[in-house]
Automatic annotation (TrEMBL):
It comes from Rhynchospora breviuscula. InterPro entries: Ankyrin_rpt, Ankyrin_rpt-contain_sf, Cul2-RING_E3_ligase_SR, TPR-like_helical_dom_sf, TPR_rpt. ANK repeats lie at residues 85-117, 118-150, 186-218, 214-246. Pfam families: Ank (PF00023), Ank_2 (PF12796), TPR_1 (PF00515). Keywords: ANK repeat, TPR repeat. The lineage of its organism: Eukaryota, Viridiplantae, Streptophyta, Embryophyta, Tracheophyta. PANTHER family: ANKYRIN REPEAT FAMILY PROTEIN. TPR repeats lie at residues 374-407. SMART domains: ANK, TPR. PROSITE patterns: ANK_REP_REGION, ANK_REPEAT, TPR, TPR_REGION. This is Uncharacterized protein.
Length: 431
């Protein structure tokens, strides 16, 4: 019985790997072996990888159109089969920009505006990863350029700007995307998003298109993220330095707090005098920001905001709204960039959205902040697994187990990494 189970596990992995690699011959062989007289579609639909993705999701992600055709037409696989977070195979084709695969899936009835739990549609995914050809294809078949589907993350233009996809921003603007689109208090505007991404080119494109220079305080974000070029660009375009951010701070106060003296000097002649600052000079502002009254106010607001953001992030993760949760954790990190748990939580969000690079980046930040924290090593290992870097994943999980030998979750992940490493080295998994 145990041997039969082990054999089935091997076949399951072979099936998923065949779907990913495009090996149709092997896929058909494995399907035949696994069916054993049962209804084949039901059997295949039950088979998923460690992240809950089906064979159709994986084949679409890798652009294996022939495999998609076999699964849909021969096995009757639902063309809009949902992943655990509500993504369709079409969305996975969009992530990688596989136009031919996307075209096939849509020809079979795939919904081009289907949204996942975050509200992201295939156009959002294509915009996020800068897949311009796929973006143009979706727009050409009638997908609205500002499609939201009750999306809490904002329109595709917000997504493209958030990840600094300059050419995609240009494509969407050429198709008359709403330059000031925003969906919720969590969502950023396109301009704010491009500032957050540090993309001066996106900022210039959006300003040229008529973006509101003060909505969501992009100037404050530029100061926080240290881009003096973007600060200068916004001011030259007419951004108002007297607009307070959501915490109640003026841009010049933020610049003083962060000791951005070049920015302070740039802002001072453009900022209206503040009644609380009795000596209206650069030195006077500095003394005011250092005052006990100011710091008390700052600490009180920051603590409350941090607590609210942590609770909101956890709630959104529970709802599987991972992109929105990442926004909450990002805002919390802006308040306290030394909290390793925030980076760990945001790493989880990126991982659930299958962005291995960002998941790894945040996991490594968490590990640098807390070198003896097992959870950080688990996050690093999970990110490497997603990136299919199994040797690094194996090492990360092993390091984590040295810190916490009884961690069951870590042990399970460790052996999964061992199995994948063995498979990648020898081409098969031993029983």
């Amino acid at each position: 019985m145990a041997s039969s189970h082990a054999s089935d596990q091997i076949k399951v992995k072979e099936l998923l790997e065949a779907a990913s690699s495009g090996d149709l011959r092997l896929l058909k062989e494995v399907v035949k072996e696994l069916s054993e007289g049962k209804e084949i579609p039901d059997k295949i639909e039950e088979i998923k990888d460690a992240t809950g993705l089906s064979a159709l999701h994986l084949s679409a992600f890798h652009g294996r159109t022939e495999i998609c055709q076999y699964l849909v037409e021969d096995l009757g696989f639902p063309v809009d089969f949902l992943s655990p977070i509500g993504d369709t195979p079409l969305s996975h084709a969009a992530i990688r920009g596989h136009v031919a695969t996307a075209r096939y899936l849509i020809s079979q009835g795939a919904n081009p505006v289907s949204s996942n739990m975050d509200g992201s549609t295939p156009l959002h995914h294509a915009a996020r990863f800068g897949q311009d050809k796929l973006v143009k294809y979706l727009l050409s078949i009638g997908v609205p350029v500002d499609v939201t589907c009750n999306c809490a993350t904002g329109a595709p233009l917000v997504m493209a700007a958030l990840f600094g996809q300059t050419s995609t921003v240009e494509v969407l603007l050429q198709h008359h995307a709403d330059v000031d689109s925003t969906a919720t208090s969590i969502a950023y505007t396109p301009l704010f998003s491009s500032v957050y991404a540090g993309s001066l080119e996106c900022v210039k494109l959006l300003i040229k298109a008529g973006a509101d220079l003060n909505l969501k305080c992009p100037l404050d974000m530029a100061i926080r993220w240290g881009s003096i070029e973007i600060v200068n660009c916004l001011l030259e375009a007419g951004a108002d330095p007297n607009v307070r951010n959501e915490y109640g701070w003026l841009p010049i106060e933020r610049a003083v707090m962060l000791q951005k003296w070049d920015v302070v000097r740039m802002l001072f002649p453009l900022t209206s005098p503040v009644p609380e600052v009795h000596d209206w000079s650069v030195h006077g502002i500095l003394q005011y920001v250092k005052s006990h009254a100011f710091m008390e106010k700052y600490d009180a607001i920051s603590k409350k905001k941090m607590a609210d953001l942590k609770v909101k992030g956890a709630e959104l993760v529970k709802k599987k709204e991972y992109l929105n949760a990442s926004f909450s954790y990002t805002k919390a990190i802006e308040i306290d960039s030394g909290d390793a748990a925030l980076y760990s939580n945001r790493s989880l969000c990126w991982h659930r959205m299958r962005d291995g690079e960002l998941a790894l980046e945040d996991a490594l930040r968490a590990q640098r902040l807390r070198p003896e924290w097992p959870k950080a090593y688990y996050r690093i290992g999970a990110a490497f697994m997603l990136l299919e870097e199994y040797e690094q994943a194996f090492q990360a999980f092993m390091d984590g187990l040295q810190l916490d030998p009884t961690n069951i979750e870590m042990k399970k992940a460790y052996w999964e990494a061992v199995d994948c490493l063995r498979k990648s080295h020898f081409g098969e998994t031993s029983e």
